[in-house]
User: Fold this.
Amino acid sequence: MSPNRQRVAVVVGATSKWQADGRNTKLAHGKALDDRDLPVGVRWGVGGAIAQKFAKEGFHVVLTTRQAANATALDQAIREQGGASTIVEMDLVSDASISKAFATIRERHGDPDVLVYNAGYLEGRDLPPDKELLEHVPVEILETAQHIASRGPFLVAKEVLPAMRKRGAGSFLISNNSSSLRGRKRLTGQSLYYPRVMMRTLAQVLTEEYSEHGVHVANVVIDGLIDSPGTRALPRAQKQPEIVMNPVKIAEAFYYLHTQDRSCWTHELQLTPFSTKPSF
Assistant:
């Protein structure tokens, strides 16, 4: 890498579905929330905290989102903190959109040094209690979950890993959850999460294929309720604040992974609040 080139970090899914006007927030609370009194580090969940962390460490951060307006406030916050960021629209359901987004990123900023895959989805959350069994799940919900949890990271990896391999350096980090550890029944109010097992499997495969080429691949299991405007307002978060995970601290874990010495890389990291038992 040229000593004059600014390092680039791409955060796929930079804004949370639990942000003040996010889809999950509106689904759970029936309205958008006021986040003006919340710390800037938690307003956009894990993706926003990761973006702010890498920007503070001197990276130019590319925020990808389906619609640019979703990330405007985060982009502004990063700039107000003295960081550098840009927004690139990308729809993980569309091959053409993914290709176009990374062509734009390469043209404007070059190949990324870090890719954080933090895309989420809420498909399944609005199914009623009598629709928990697989036989009631519309195939469209499964298809969306697969697009985000397995097909999406596969296509994104194809866009960024060749350059990382040729350079002999780079980090491909996946933000995952406890449902990736084994298949679990979908409960009422939950997304259809078992396709995330494939996301974890992909991380394991990429580790075997690309570690020897100098690329650090890691699956991060975020095992708990992440602080954000929408989750903070949930009854269980207000009754048990100790179960809520600080996204600023989660972001520090991602940066730690990127900065690890290659003599001792971590390929899976599970983060769990002190007050709860780790999932398995």
Q: What stands out?
A: The chain has a mean pLDDT of 95.
